[in-house]
Amino acid sequence: MIRIRGLTKRYGDFDALKGIDLDLAPGEFLVVLGPSGAGKSTLLRCINRLAEPTQGEVYIDGRLAKPDAASLRALRRQVAMIFQHYNVVPRLSVEKNVLTGRLAAMPQVLSWFQVFPRQDIELARECLRRVELEDKAALRTDTLSGGQKQRVGIARALAQQPKIILADEPVASLVPKTSRTVLNYLKQASRQLGISVVCNLHQIEYAREFGERIVGMSAGAVVFEGGPDQLTDEVLHRIYPGLGDGPPPGSPAPAAPVHGLNQFALEEG
Amino acid sequence: MNIGTYAWLVGKPSGRLGWWGRAAVGALTIAVLWWAARGSQVSFGELSKGLPWIGDFIGRMIPPNWGFLEKLVTPAIETVQIAIWGTLLAIVLAVPVCFFAARNLTPNLVVFQLTRQVFNVTRGINEIILALIFVAAVGLGPFPGVLALAVHGAGMLGKFFSESIEEIDQGPIEALRSTGAAPIQIVIFAVIPQVITAWIAVILYRFETNLRQATVLGMVGAGGIGFELVGSMKLFQYQDTATCILVIIAMVMIADYVSTKLRAWIQKGAR
User: Are strands A164-168 and A196-201 parallel, antiparallel or unpaired?
Assistant: First the structure.
């Protein structure tokens, strides 16, 4: 579904990605694990070309994207994205936010005047049902909680009927309990619809729980690739090189309360 | 420095020059003020000599000629009408251009600078001067007034519109871009919803300003109540002039009050 060869991204003197090779099978749920600054976001952005790769190839469904605007839009229709900060439009209704996932597929001029095809509206409703927010459809999106906003983000991605979903730290701004719910919605929907997922995470416990396959990244390079059961302490030290002898970040051990508190502080009311 | 039982608590100015630096700045300030006073012939002597004349002028205005009110109804309404269309045309001119003058949406720096400068130029020319030009171009009457307000207002609205676009959250724009939405769709679904309340507040403020400006446009023949004001003064009908001034004050106060209330209401609803 995705084939990445020698992907390099340079920002000035800084190498954000140092020659990444990566494959994603159709229908696979891949977790990219690593500390912040490892290049996980840049990797996703190079896949849907929100960032232009400096070097290397990214094949989506066997095709290389051309850099002109029309080809990029065609590519992005196939590849939905979910963001850490949800990036829903605050003053639009929940339903209209989900419908924005259909914009690229509908008659453009009609959309300017807020006229949408009925089948797209029906599809948006169905996507909202999948994340169990159909009763919130008419509400303004800024009235929702963080977890609910992210579920709108998932519904918007599903509404695109994409082949691939890129999820960039989808639960980093949420409390642990909400995080698990949100990840469950994402995994369930993508399983049922056969959508391949690349999900960036920095919490090891979620990576173990949700990842069918895990890629570990550190300082712009892939340092591990394997199943969740292969995530040994030795591997974790490779992914988190600064890690001392204490428990890794996000480990389920009760010895890591500070991390949990940090997450809690990030949750909004 | 001690002065009897008091102490003067001012530290020595920092820098190499110390008090000499302060003295130089003080001397320069006095020199500039004296120079400007010479040029503008500021004279308190003249003012005090003129006071009786001002008193005489005001005396001739009292009591205002309330009968003249009847004749002011049409010009006052015309003033509001000029302000409405002046504001509307300013919006029509500013909206399509403002996206190119916002740093975060502009396609390139040349377009950005160009559109910014166009706004600066149109905003830089005073409405009265624009009205003089348009009166010469399309003749006496309210329409040149409308055009003057539209051109000046477009510059002001364009600047504010593009600045409010620069302040929005980039996240939704990026999200819509990643769905494959086209640029105009991104503007309509991710930009406009984020700026619309700020825009409405600025438009209301602009309407208020336009109404105030429309009351004086008549002085150069561009319609509205200002025309009656100047006319009555030229005919030495100072009691009529007083009525004009009172009507103008009332109109400006009402516009100010209504627009302030509306803006507060909209901004409260926006949260």
Answer: parallel
Do residue B180 and residue A153 have CB atoms under 8 angstroms apart?
Answer: no
Q: Which residues of B touch A96 (CB under 8 A)?
A: 189
Write the DSSP symbol of residue B68. Answer: G
Q: Which of A77, A87, A160 sits opposite B174 (nearest CB)?
A: A87
Which of B253, B255, B146, B268 lies closest to B205 in space, CA to CA? B255
Question: What ipTM did this prediction achieve?
Answer: 0.85
Q: For chain A (length 269 residues), average pLDDT per consecutive 10? A: 93 92 94 92 94 93 87 93 95 95 95 95 95 94 94 96 96 92 93 94 92 93 92 88 58 42 40
Q: Please state whether the predicted TM-score (pTM) of the whole model is above 0.90.
A: no
What share of residues in chain A are helix, strand, coil (percent, to 5)? 40, 25, 35
| Contact check, Cβ <8 Å, B185/A48 | no
Angle at which helix B192-217 crosses helix B238-270, to 10 degrees, equals: 180
Tell me the C-alpha distance between B143 and A25, whole Å. 68
Q: B69-98 vs B142-166: helix axis angle to the nearest 10?
A: 40
How near does any CA of chain A get to the CA of B188, in Å? 7
Indicate yes or no: CB of A111 within 8 angstroms of CB of B185. yes
Of A85, A92, A112, the CB nearest to B184: A112
